[in-house]
Description:
The protein is α/β, with parallel strands linked by helices. The protein is 34% helix and 21% strand.
Amino acid sequence: MTGIALAPDALGPTITIGEILVEIMAVDRGTGFLEPTALVGPYPSGAPAIFIDQCARIGGSAGIIACVGDDDFGRVNVTRLRADGADISAISINPDFPTGSAFVRYRNDGSRDFVFNIAKSAAAKIDLTSAARALIDRSGHLHVMGTALAIPGAAEIIEHAVTVIKGRGGSISFDPNVRKELLGDTETRTRFAGLVDIADLILPSGEELFVAAGGEDEGEAIRALFGRNAGEVALKRGADGSTVFTREGQRIDCPGFVVEEIDPTGAGDCFGGAYVACRRLGMPIEQALIYANAAGARNVTVMGPMEGAGTLAELDAFIAVTPGRRS
Ligand code: ATP
Ligand code: MG
């Protein structure tokens, strides 16, 4: 593959499929929720929702297939996504189940305790509705989140979307943001491997690279991915920034921006949303990568998983005043 690995924005929106949640956060750090503690939220959340919100805010065309309940937690999300420019026509409303939620408390060491309601919430009720089919039929790019593979029914919708979007000349990206332990059953493992095989762009972070590619050495794992379909791999390195590798052998490093980390949740999703949108809008890798790093870094400076998602103008302003980390 030469040139840009992703189909242009003009072919149709970037879409994603999966969970929409609210996140409710403990104000103080500590261990879990075993006693009353002050909370803040609800914040719009869910990895696919954060990704698509950042994609839309930066100016890419964007849409999501998801399900919420007929409640305020659902309305908080739909209102935000609509306001930020995402196509919400394929978000269905299930009257029988509440919108998904995640209660989160940071520990002093930065690790997190969660109380999730996803599997038995509206988030798990996504369906290939006629609105979802219509959105897929006009899409130019599918972004798959590893987390979505845990949702019953999502795999079939993803499979359908891959076929339709590839068939019309669109492209696929894959963020394998799933813990190794969650890949337990053979079916999920096979689906995961299938997505690694067909993705044009893969966006792993940390050990996800090795879960996706095997091996223990970074270079070896990257080469293994280029032995499949990938044209670009964007490797996320937290506060240290990121690197894009291309099939043609280029390596572009981008140091992290120096920020005060308030809430790291959602950084990887904002990074991905910005990178995919910028590449599809025709930006060269170097420029897209700076915006992606800025989107991730800006998002960690505020409470709430998608509160820091920035527009192009906001990211330009952020880049202008924020120093990069010296390597
Ligand atoms: P998530 O926790 O959302 O799954 P991730 O593990 O997929 O995140 P990270 O590497 O943590 O991805 O973050 C994505 C990008 O955001 C990084 O490559 C970096 O550019 C930026 N970023 C994240 N955390 C920081 C930080 N503390 N300081 C500066 N930049 C950051
Ligand atoms: Mg991640």
